[in-house]
């Protein structure tokens, strides 16, 4: 069967979904394997996943534009993995993948009660039922010599953002040993200016936080992979809670179409090209009118603006890791919870990951680049957690923007690339970089970048279940023949859905009630499970996953999902960390 080029996501359950216990219990030779857990393949743009296994992949290598760090292959150091071009992308009709790759630990920052007060009622105090770990951090080495910076993992954006020593305004959070800032004044061997540090950017997030600065390039080291000349956003102004979360910036692993840096660079390049053309036309007109040659002034004008057009598009980190021979396979796998097996007793191994595995502890979770972790996927037949047990789902393609936003480079934000896009049932009219022939193709204009076929790690949500009772979700774009679209979002500490769907769920729970717009409470002793299916088996969430805070002097507790209004971005459901902690997700980029 021929597989058309597209992105895939898969989910592999690490536990029987009806049981939420013994997550950290080690398995040994005498332990009977658990029943085959449910697996679900997801079709979506950049997303997030966790404890159950989720996977997204492309059937064939491609240069899909995902925001990531750029690397100059000629200057790479350390162990160099096989190029995606050298390995089969598809075996039969499923993406190829093996145990191995670059294993990176995740750090879970605990924030008791964080994010709860904004949803509380005026006359009640919320009591967290457990520590809320809503920030997952990846230690990333940047610079030469390298310094390690804790970066918040985000699957719904694609840029690398790093706070700098220039962030000194009253709105900037303070730096400390736990959230160090990049020292712009200090000489860095790997530092490269972009357009004389004059290319400015800014971005905003749904929670009202903002960040801005200029664009630079640096050496980025991820395990044994070194990416030189990687583009990143130097933050010199922000109200992000960096010090509270003990982070230095953000690591985006989304698709290139989301890249603020990419849009800004292309827009500036287009403006410079237009200016050069205008200057040349003016000089030629003057020369014709005076009957003299003005080639000297024309040449000077073009040279003066050449520095603005030298750099147009710079690939994101994920894009660079995929385009150049850094990874065995164009995938990354994510767990937001410790493995079932105690790492100290794990016997699974691979040559590709032996050295890195010995140095990292997945006690909070794991990010594996180029393969899947031996701590979460094994080679034992019948375990229900082998590579062959993974189910794959197509990533949901998104259509072209309905309108064109001619904003200036300084005002380009993430929403410019996403706000007016809608899911699409076909990608025939979109710009594609999801096949081998386009592996080295990069966008040359903002229009080309905005017309990329993939936008988010999102998939089609087939069904929801409440204690086994199936609820078919409504789609915001049912009139277009599209199903309900769910975004996997590791940067969101919750679950959110359309008002109609959320109301239907809580209407089936005894004594549940809406306490404020979109926020529901249920009796704290509720025992019901909530399941999500993407065409495969259900991923079941236990009450401890979706009931998250008690109301003081009450027997009621706050619960997910919350209802959210349609924003026109094509996303119906947002599945954050409460969902992702229950899955091990694999995202295939090409």
Explain how this protein is built.
With 590 residues, the protein is of the alpha+beta class. Among the domains are: 128-263 and 312-330, Cathepsin D, subunit A, domain 1; 457-588, Cathepsin D, subunit A, domain 1. 15% of the residues lie in helices and 27% in strands. The strands form six sheets. Strands 1, 2, 3, 6, 17, 18 and 33 form a seven-stranded mixed beta sheet that branches. It has a six-stranded mixed β-barrel with strand order 9-10-16-11-15-14. A hairpin with a 5-residue loop joins strand 13 and strand 14 (210-222). Helix 2 (260-290) runs antiparallel to helix 3 (295-309). The two termini are 18 Å apart. Residues 1-8, 13-53, 56-92, 112-124, 128-132, 292-309, 342-358 and 402-419 have low confidence and may be disordered. Residues 58-81, 342-363, 403-445 are annotated as: Disordered. Residues 67-81 have a biased composition (Basic residues). InterPro entries: Aspartic_peptidase_A1, Pepsin-like_dom, PEPTIDASE_A1, Peptidase_aspartic_dom_sf.
Query: What does the average pLDDT come to?
Result: 73
Query: At the third CATH level, what is the topology name of the domain at 128-263 and 312-330?
Result: Cathepsin D, subunit A, domain 1
Indicate the CATH architecture of the domain at 128-263 and 312-330: Beta Barrel
Quote the beta fraction: 25-35%
* Overall radius of gyration: 24 Å
Output the CATH homologous superfamily of the domain at 128-263 and 312-330.
Acid Proteases
**Range of helix content:** 10-25%
The top level CATH class name of the domain at 128-263 and 312-330 = Mainly Beta
Task: Give the overall shape.
Answer: globular
Unreliable spans are: 1-8, 13-53, 56-92, 112-124, 128-132, 292-309, 342-358, 402-419
Largest sheet: 7 strands, mixed
- How many angstroms separate the termini? 18 Å
Signal peptide: 1-20
InterPro entries: Aspartic_peptidase_A1, Pepsin-like_dom, PEPTIDASE_A1, Peptidase_aspartic_dom_sf
Biased composition (Basic residues): 67-81
GO biological process, one term: proteolysis
